[in-house]
Amino acid sequence: MPLFLQDASVGSLAVMRDQASRSLRLRTGPGRLARIVLFASALALTLLATPVALADEASSSEIDATIWNVISATVAAGDLEGMAATYHEDAVLVSSKGTVAIAEQLVKWGEGMERARVEGRSAVVSFRFTGRQDDQATAFERGIFRYAETDADGVEQPTFIPFEALLVKKDGRWLIVMERQHEATDESAWRGLDE
After folding, report:
1. Taking the model in full, what pTM does it have?
2. Which of 9, 94, 188, 190 is the Cys-Cys partner for 180 at CB 3.0 to 4.6 Å?
3. Same domain, 27 and 70
4. How far apart, in whole angstroms, are the C-alpha atoms of residue 97 and residue 57?
């Protein structure tokens, strides 16, 4: 038994319980409870009715120019350094296989680029978005990217990957800090998105 209760009589414990119960009833009596419920309801309605700015148009345009367009160009050119420049140094790639530091993943992507070059294959990537929540310094973007390799015979093999990305603006530059790639989807999902 706790030290402060060792000397307490059963009667004094009952008095303490009654006082605590009365105090609780006073703080949450029917009038106060009704006001709390009314306040919570009003707050919920206000939050639901307030439109959320999904994207700062200027930030989205800047992100397109400095991230997504750059990645498209670097994939087409096989430019690993240019692609690496779009990622924060501590960025992480998340997939169904787990997580990996982007520095480690870039090595694998570079090896794939070199193999493709040697085998006469080329690649292109383009992006479409399902949501963009951007402000002047942070962004969360999601959509689908279409990655397509074309072999030496001119046969293209496209893959459609849903993705999410977290970005930050650091020293005036947008950088990806987390990229999440989901399981591949089909072309109809891609066609359903605006260009």
Report:
1. 0.70
2. 94
3. no
4. 34
Residue 122 bridge partners (DSSP): 150
What tens-digit pLDDT sequence spans the chain (195 residues)? 444 344 444 444 444 445 544 544 444 455 655 555 444 444 444 434 333 345 568 789 999 999 999 999 999 999 999 999 999 999 999 999 999 999 999 999 999 999 999 999 999 999 999 999 999 999 999 999 999 999 999 999 999 999 999 999 999 999 999 999 999 999 999 999 887
Determine the 3-state secondary structure of 23 from DSSP.
helix
Partnered with residue 160 across adjacent β-strands are 146, 185
**Under 8 Å between Cβ of 88 and 168:** yes
Residues 93 and 164 placed together within one structural domain of the fold = yes
Task: Indicate which CATH number applies to the domain containing 138.
Answer: 3.10.450.50
* Count of CA atoms in the C-beta half-sphere (13 A) of 135: 4
- β-pairing, 87-95 vs 173-181, is parallel
Structural domain span for residue 38 = 3-49
